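Run log, item B.
One chain of 108 residues. Sequence copied directly from the ordering sheet:
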Amino acid sequence: MKIQAIIATAVLAGALTTPAWANGDANAGKAKSTVCAACHGADGNSPTPAFPKIAGQNDDYLAYALKAYRSKARSNAIMNGQAANLSDQDIADLSAYFASQPGLKYKY
């Protein structure tokens, strides 16, 4: 009985701590990222300072930001339009892809 309770607790803890973006597919995200590349670069490392570098960002943050643009809770004319038709799966895939890319390097 004790072992069953321990297993049940472990399974529940794992389910509660699994992030929402865990279902994102980086390969699918890469295929969907062509529109993003126009401003953010093919791998998320924007070639111009006018657009943010999103490579290597936390995928949870990227998903949060895209959902906020989609709902217009976060306002940006370009991003609101780009995110408007993204599904939750599209957002998860894009977030997984850009998070998997090498991002900024810090100099100490």
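Observations after the first pass:
- DSSP finds six helices and no strands in the chain.
- The two ends are 53 Å apart (CA to CA).
Flagged for discussion on Thursday.
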